[in-house]
Amino acid sequence: MTCVCFKCIYNAFSKSQDDVYIQYNASLSSTQTFSKTYFSKLYILELTYHISHFFSLKMISINDVYEPKCFDILLMDICSKDLRETIPKKLNIEYLSDSLQEFNDDINGIMYGSKFRLFCATTVKIKNKIKVIHFLVDTGSPMTYICEEVLNAFGVSLADPDQFISVRINNRQASIMMSPTGSHFKEVNVIGMEFMKLFDAELHVYFSKSCFSLKFDQEEVV
Length: 222
What we know:
This protein has helices at about 80-90, 150-155, 195-200, and strands spanning about 1-5, 20-25, 35, 45-50, 55-60, 95-100, 105-110, 115-125, 130-135, 145, 165-170, 170-180, 190, 200-205, 210-215. By secondary structure, the chain is mainly beta.
């Protein structure tokens, strides 16, 4: 549990408080949502960590509707080389490789890096093309995202980057969005909770072996 103290902003919230405390439990989610626990007013403080190493602070009501296009993941520990070289080697499958048929079994992956990210590889089918795509499995993400580079490899160019598109992931129909270009995961593909919930998936993480399995109870008939 990490506790961040902001003395400079307490007057904006409470005259009786000397400090503002924001707690973030990194073990629950890799997203950038912070809960404010020391005030009677019900708010969530959302912090965005910029590359310049400064924090910008935004206050939103807990009743605000989740907007997939505004979602972000703090992937400061993953670089381009990890995505295109190191992770594909560990998964033993080439980045953006072509496939003659779709995968349909359970998805097995690795636990990678200092933040124990869950990465895997499975097929994506768009139009008549099938490619093996590397995904980050993130239980903090409601939506599933595919990055612009991958969409371009399928010949897909979105006039509206906020639109939903229909694809097949691991031989299962899914609605996805493009990874937001202004986010920290703009080059990363993400399998989110909606996909796992839709297909009754079970996520098993084996810390002793630094790997995981995403198991499916039922197969979708093509």
